[in-house]
Amino acid sequence: MTGVAVLEAQHLHLGFGGVRAVDDVSLSLAAGEFLAIIGQNGAGKSTFLNICTGYLRPDSGEVRVGGRSILGLKPRAIAKIGIARAFQHPQLFLQRSVLDHLRFAVSAGRAGFWRPFHPLASAALADEVVGLLGLCDLELVAELPAGAIPEGSRKLLDVAMALALAPRIMLLDEPTSGVSSAEKLGLMTRLVGALRARGVSAIFVEHDMEVVARFADRVAVWVEGRLLRVGSPQEVLADPDVKARVL
Amino acid sequence: MQAGRAASLAALLACCAVLPVILPRDTFQFTIVLSAGFAGFAVALLLEAGLLSFGHALFYGIGGYTVAALSPLVSHFAVVLILAGAIAGAVTAVLTGLFVVRYRGVFFAMLNLAMAMVAYSILLKSYNLTGGSDGLVVDVSGIVGAQLSPQAFGRWLFYFSLGSALLLGAVMRRYLRSPAGWALGAIEDREIRVEYLGISANRVLLQAYTLSGFLAGLGGAISATAVGHVAPDAVYWTTSTEFVVIAVLGGRGVLGPFLGAALYELLSISAAQYLSNSWQILLGAVILLVIRFARGGLSGLVNTCEAMLWPDRMRERGLPRGHIR
User: Fold this and answer.
1) pLDDT per position as a tens digit, A46-90
2) Residue B8 resides in a domain
3) The dihedral formed by the CA atoms of B18, B20, B22 and B23, expressed in degrees to the nearest 10
4) Does residue B313 belong to any structural domain of this protein?
5) Closest residue in chain A to residue B172, using alpha carbons only
6) Cα gap B300→B257, rounded to integer Å
7) Hey, of B171, B197, B200, which one would you mutate to test binding to chain A, going by the most A CBs within 10 A of its CB?
8) Which domain holds residue B132?
9) What's the CATH number where B234 sits?
10) What is the pLDDT of residues A152-167, one digit of tens each?
11) ipTM of the complex model
């Protein structure tokens, strides 16, 4: 890893009954870096993201953002200090329009959120909302309900909502799952472009090695709750041990 | 299109406003419809977040008892008394809400019911303070200092209730279109996404719960003032259930609960004349029909009619949301 670490996880342990989901994991993310996490299903990849966003609390270990411990903080508090999350299954309000999703997400970080007479469709939010629509290529579906747009657009909408918080770090859980093979690279190009345009560092869990090779700066390989290998995509994906146990 | 909607609303209000002139003997009943409409609105507001309360009679009763307790002191100031009843409902909602908004689903419904039943028992047992099962007399006969004849006071109370419904309807409409109001539906759909946007779902719900308590307290205060009496039955679980029925019949939105209250009172009063003590059969049949054919309640029917007559208007306002999932 090069550059200043924006997120540092040290000696994380978390078990569910007899299963060690995260076992002595230490990992860091540098500013501007795109770190891919690969591994088989159930290896503990999503559990790691859940710890970093406050959804789960580790049995032991530490997670620091900008030098500050975030253990014990709730997901909303962690969101406020700059860690945003996009989900494997986009968490959207299916009957509401794409535009309203972004208005809501943009208003979430503003003081006007709690004012009862502050309209959701406030003109003050318009520029930010239009910017996010353009950044994530959602202009053509802006008026449609989220339930009526393609899965790729839903993924982008989920990311756009997270970007509305102006995060420093984005955690993406399988951003290309549910998207056809033909659309995966296009989706990731738009997604990574949107994140890089805002200077956001990212960790993404991914199963498609073509996506990993193309978009990750570093790759962390997860096996049964432990980190097997961390390195550049070229090194890691060519490693015989990784090939045998993960690929 | 907005002008057409405003004209429809103005026509409806005009019809309501002339009711005491056309049917002066039923003015009391119209006031009761409005008071039940406020309580139904209180329940419907929480339904926006998918939360069903079986205990809103608590705030309704608190509103009524507050008016009863203060009426000997300021019997000629109905406006002050009713406002005090509504505020008492809101304060009670804040205190209970700090606890109950942490829960969802059946736990939320049952905790509300439990709180209301605890209050019912206290009211029943505290004879020296509350009159026990006899309740308290509410003697209010003036608005802002001037004493009125019972007929004039009844008319004034109706118009005050109608004006309050209009004012609070406008206020709540704005609230439901604000980010915090919009968040209610978002919490019902995906609470986890709301939290990951840095928003406290519990805080959003506490705000709505407090507003809900204010509305129910207002309904109870108006009802107690109109009836001239309040008893522990106002807090009993069957009263809470009536408000749930009104909310289901009326559907979501600002107008729905008042339409629901009108239908409920119409059914209970009219059917009682023909079905003696079994008017609930008719009520049950109507609820079944609403659930089967009009899941959005009466307001959903209004939206459906609007969509058929003016499809463009519905597109502008977005998709209507179902009431019962």
Assistant:
1) 999 999 999 999 999 999 998 899 999 999 999 999 999 999 899
2) no
3) 150
4) yes
5) A116
6) 11
7) B197
8) 27-317
9) 1.10.3470
10) 899 999 999 999 999 9
11) 0.88
